[in-house]
Amino acid sequence: MSATLALALTLSTPAALSGPVFECSFGAKELRITQEKGALVYRYGTKTGTELRIVADAKSGRVFYHRTLYPRGEDQTLRFVNGDYSYVVFAHWTAPPSADIEFEIPAAQYGGLIVMRGDDVLSPRVCKEGGDMVEWPIFKTLPSDAENLTPPI
């Protein structure tokens, strides 16, 4: 392979991101989402034990992504499906006001988890630590959720 072709292939392949896709703590319980190969892995439990693990990719129909952009913020959700239950991981971010822009919404950043059975919310939780989500390249391959499920806090 020529050096030019090798360089072109390297530049056309998106660089893999490192670290977790999402991570947060609810006290003794924690939630961590990672990417392993072409799938997202949802892990909920304690530091020493996993209570629920879901592995899902775009083809499985078990993970959905939603992103809503605002003039100075965004909401993102990943919804993992396990039977009748949905586990909605959410992250909200709003930029702080600046001297040159009047903006009536205060700065905020929070994330968390909503456990649902069908349309019923069973357990909404806000992260005590963590809760940030950066858009990963794999998100573009996932089916979209029709609505924004990020709760206002």
Q: Can you offer a commentary on this structure?
A:
The chain is mainly beta and 153 residues long. The protein contains 1 helix and 10 strands. The protein has one helix at 3-12, and strands spanning 22-25, 30-36, 39-45, 50-56, 63-70, 73-82, 85-94, 108-117, 120-126, 129-130. It has a 5-stranded antiparallel sheet, with no helix packed on it. Strands 5-6-7-8-9 form a 5-stranded antiparallel sheet, with no helix packed on it. The relative contact order is 0.20.
pLDDT < 50 stretches: 1-15
Question: Percent helix among the residues?
Answer: under 10%
The biggest beta sheet, please? 5 strands, antiparallel
Radius of gyration: 18 Å
Termini distance? 55 Å
Beta percentage is over 45%
Shape category: globular
Structural descriptors:
single chain; 153 residues; 47% strand; disordered N terminus
Write the topology of this structure.
Layout: H1 3-12, E1 22-25, E2 30-36, E3 39-45, E4 50-56, E5 63-70, E6 73-82, E7 85-94, E8 108-117, E9 120-126, E10 129-130
Antiparallel strand pairs: 1-2, 1-10, 2-3, 3-4, 5-6, 6-7, 7-8, 8-9
